[in-house]
Amino acid sequence: MKLAVVAANGKVGSAIVMEAVARGWEVTAIVRGGGSTGGVEGPGARAASSILVKDIMSLEAADLAGFDVVVDAFGVFDPDRQGEHTETLMHLADLLAGTDTRLLVVGGAGSLYVDPDRQTQLVDTPDFPPAHLPVARGMRAAWERLAKRTDVHWTYVSPAAFLNPDGERTGQYRLGDDQVPVNSAGQSVISYPDFALALTDLVAQGLPDRTHLSAVSK
């Protein structure tokens, strides 16, 4: 398996790289370069088989040629930069359009539905944390654009409502559809390592085409 992880030094990106490398896959970490959060010194880059130092918007089709799967783990939290979620995702989709390479997108929980009729998304609920509204809306806008694309083989995976930065790798999780998932304790939570495990398991099993999934701890 040949995997490219875009934004490989983010929290999810690093976890995916390390999970994939542990499986013996050939993993290329794509990082911006420079700085403490995007450079080649980060954990994702250190664990990868190889490193490509390049900004997402500077990537060309040749940079992504030959990979089985390209993972988009890009995320930005600055309220003034939320348009970059759509801009970068559409750029990657354009580069992979018409190819057999799969685009696996690390999504946000805000676009998951809270009702069986799929009328209300999590980001639109009254108790959604105000501090997280900009990034949730930015990621939802990107998802809505991706959902219309039929020229690229994409899979969009949202974490549970709470992506626990301090959670451990339990090796146990459950996949769901595009509704907010809950575990056996009635909680919608998953750790970064278990979310990365869910994503790499999907790659190993074969990514469902043009599907929105979710993952929650057991």
Automatic annotation (TrEMBL):
State the Gene Ontology terms under molecular function.
oxidoreductase activity, acting on the CH-NH group of donors, NAD or NADP as acceptor
- Source domain of life is Bacteria
Pfam families the UniProt entry points to: NAD_binding_10
**Which Gene3D superfamilies does this entry report, sorted A to Z?**
NAD(P)-binding Rossmann-like Domain
| Annotated NAD(P)-binding domain residues | 8-203
This one is known as NAD(P)H-binding protein
The organism of origin for this protein: Scrofimicrobium appendicitidis
